[in-house]
Design a protein that fits this description.
- This protein is mainly alpha-helical.
- Helix content is 46%, strand content 9%.
- It is built from two helices and four strands, in the order E-E-E-E-H-H.
- Strands 1-2 form a two-stranded antiparallel ribbon.
Length: 112
């Protein structure tokens, strides 16, 4: 793992077994002949979790708006007549789907 010391990149890393410096380009320690494991850090920033949370919140809002207008709870009259199954089944299904997506996004954020 080459770090940066005073603006210059280091060219060696310590061996995990003997502690002596090993050049970064080598996979095996020249002193003890053990293979030095290469460690790679994950660069996941939780972006996919954040995206799922936002998408879930959007679906929850959409389900609430559908329920509000299709259920007749507003003073605004829709120009078309909707079947009652839209407010009874579709709107809660969209809302619960959005809630599930939010919870999945939170799970992804915690895991990353």
């Amino acid at each position: 793992m080459g770090g940066v010391i005073l603006g210059q990149a280091t060219t060696s890393r310590p061996c995990a077994y003997c502690g002596k410096p090993v050049p970064v380009r080598l996979n095996r320690c020249p002193h003890c002949r053990e293979e030095v494991p290469e460690v790679r850090l994950s660069s996941r920033g939780g972006k996919e979790g954040r995206r799922e949370v936002h998408r879930g919140l959007t679906y929850m809002l959409l389900g609430a708006v559908i329920y509000y207008f299709a259920g007749g709870h507003s003073t605004f009259a829709l120009p078309i007549k909707l079947s009652p199954w839209v407010s009874d089944y579709l709107a809660p299904l969209v809302f619960l789907g959005g809630l599930g997506m939010c919870l999945y996004g939170v799970y992804l954020r915690i895991r990353s």
